[in-house]
Amino acid sequence: MPKSATKDLLSFIQASPSPFHCVEESARRLLAAGFKEFRDSDEPLSVEAGQAAFVKRAGSILAYRAGAISPAAAGFTILGAHTDSPNLRIKPKPDLGRHGYAQWGVEPYGGVLMSTWLDRDLGVSGRVHVRGSDGRPKARLFRCDEPIARIANLAIHLNREVNSKGLKLDFQDHLPPLVGMGSAPAFGKWLSDELGGAEVLSWDLGLMDVQPPTMGGFDESFIFSPRLDNQASCYAALRALIDAETADTTQVVVLFDHEEVGSRSHSGAMGAFLRDSLARIERHYADRCPGGMERAIPNSILVSMDMAHGIHPNYADKHEPKHAPILNGGPVIKEHVEQRYATDGETSAWFRDLCSSQEVPVQDFVIKSNMQCGSTIGPISAAELGVRTIDIGSAMLSMHSIREQAGSRDTAYMLSVLKAALEGGAN
Ligand SMILES: [Zn+2]
What is the Å distance from ligand 1's center to 262 Cα? Predict the structure, then answer.
């Protein structure tokens, strides 16, 4: 199980170079497992107990298996994660020509660890809107795995203090990748040619590393991969839902876009996607069990999954000494007294109990008291819904690098705990 789950995670990430691809790969796996697809405007979301379905909204997706008992009585058990990762997005008018080179204008999406994007072989991926055969805009997924672009470093001879003083990058001037010499086609023309001559109306595209994910290290202890934050969590949540047995509680997985830029969007965690989808699921039971959402939410729990900072042996002083998770050490519970993470004593106890029932080790993270803490979808959804929430994740290194690092044994740990959570419910 450990290795096969990790290999499956790597193929999930390889199939998901953008949030839109991540949603499509998730949908493909759900359909193969017998889940029914609803349109986002269907009402209610109605399947019988034990049956399963999903609904997509742009770069977000929500999947569920209807519980044997109504959500008002048995609650929702929700696993949440995010589909987006920091990268460089292509501007609407990207064509630049300087000193004989063809270049593209790009801008950072989220908190990119920028130095890692230099001297990499870069492709392009995301969503394109083209004019369909009926004359109306039509969305198409797009990926180019060829190394078509590269952001070249400046030679050390022209930047002699770079190793001692650090790399300073001006995001406007220093990020445009080189894509060819003077004769390279305009971006829109190239895109149209790649899409068989379609009329391109707009795009949501970014650069991506074309190097596939891999396991590495002696005895393959590690995963080296793009987008582990947070597709490792997306994969674990989705796979746990697919593998779980029907329970009293309604099992839900929600994967949101736009976490890396604050979650404020029509499909992000700050929007109504989760709340409205749960209400649409709950209405299927409305005439059999009174109380509705007002009863369902207090009976529910949200496991907000995002990657955690593992301790780095070369920078160990960056961690609180007693709260320093390691790779392959099992799920990490993240706490923050000012609610940058939504965990509290009640949800922490519930999760620790699950881990011990599965004989899975569990770790703790709090930020050092003199450092600022990150955040994720947990506190946002907790506040939006009023649902008890825990923030957890697997430990990793190089977060927000173009190529991150995690432990190869944590996938299986996470899967067994999440499956137990979905089958056991909150109460
Ligand atoms: Zn994240």
Answer: 11
